[in-house]
Amino acid sequence: MTAAGKPRTSGPGQAGAGSGTPPKSARRRSRELALQGIYQWLLAHEDAGAIEAHLHDTPGFEKADRAHFEALLHGTIREAAALDALIAPHLDRKVAELSPVEHGVLMLGAFELLRMPEIPYRVVINEAVEIAKTFGGTDGYKYVNGVLDRLATRARPHEAPAR
């Protein structure tokens, strides 16, 4: 970030030419934006359409996979209760005790595992872990990894064998 609060276009730790860090994929951006929307929904229970409209104004939105973003945001909100019921048996606490970031990442990961079989389960889990590292608490990504790994063995037994 610059002193004016704007993102750097290049520099240490920033994606871009010469930085050594690959640019974020359009899918990663769509997942991050969807997480921001789910977070807002979890805290304020705002209408999904209003959340989507607000996120369209987010810097970098044009670089996201719009169709994937919309599917994640609307699908996760629409199926929230069912997703929570699927996640709950794999938790060490009640769903209501999860941080909103962990909760949102788990819901998004569960939605992708269940409704987007064209995305390999390892990709779903890895993306969720990376997003949890970016937005979540210090070790939240480890928790997300464990929960989604256990869920994957049930949601995709042919692809993610039980250990």
Walkthrough of the structure:
The N terminus is likely disordered. It contains seven helices and no strands. The chain has 163 residues and is mainly α. The protein starts with 25 loop residues before the first helix and ends in an 8-residue tail after the last helix.
Q: In a few lines, what is going on in this structure?
A:
The protein is mainly α and 163 residues long. The chain has helices spanning 26-44, 48-56, 66-78, 80-87, 100-115, 121-135, 140-155.
How much β-strand is present in the residues? under 5%
Q: What count of helical segments does DSSP give?
A: 7
Give the biggest sheet: none
Secondary structure: helix percent: 55-70%
Say how many strands there are: 0
- Head-to-tail CA distance between termini: 43 Å
Mind sketching the topology for me?
Layout: H1 26-44, H2 48-56, H3 66-78, H4 80-87, H5 100-115, H6 121-135, H7 140-155
Helix pairs in contact: 1-2, 1-3, 1-5, 3-5, 4-5, 5-6, 5-7, 6-7
